[in-house]
């Protein structure tokens, strides 16, 4: 029973680690808007967390959106 629980715990931790490292892409309109704000930004190979953060920034009214997006990209 212990080995079954240990195996299940290892599988769950491995799958959650894989989910954190998967790459995501910005949607077309979001990517176009981000590229307008940060023209030299590299928007390839973003993590899901980076995509979510950039989309959140794009939806905000903050005047420093370019700086925030650059900080996420670096």
Features:
mainly alpha; 74 residues; two-stranded antiparallel ribbon
Please explain how this structure is put together.
- With 74 residues, this protein is mainly alpha-helical.
- It is built from four helices and two strands.
- It has a two-stranded antiparallel ribbon with strand order 1-2.
- The model has no long low-confidence stretch (mean pLDDT 82).
Write a brief caption for the model.
By secondary structure, the protein is mainly alpha-helical. It is built from four helices and two strands. The model has no long low-confidence stretch (mean pLDDT 82).
Structural class: mainly alpha
Question: What general outline do the C-alpha atoms trace?
Answer: globular
The fraction of residues in strands falls at: 5-15%
Low-confidence stretches: none
- What strand order characterises the main sheet? 1-2
Please summarize the sheet with the most strands. 2 strands, antiparallel
**What is the domain total for the residues?**
1
Number of helices: 4
- Taking Cα atoms only, what radius of gyration do you get, to the nearest Å? 17 Å
Q: Overall pLDDT, averaged? A: 82
Strands, total number? 2
What is the secondary structure topology, with strand pairs?
Blueprint lengths: L1 H20 L1 E2 L3 H10 L8 E2 H12 L5 H9 L1
Antiparallel strand pairs: 1-2
Helix pairs in contact: 3-4
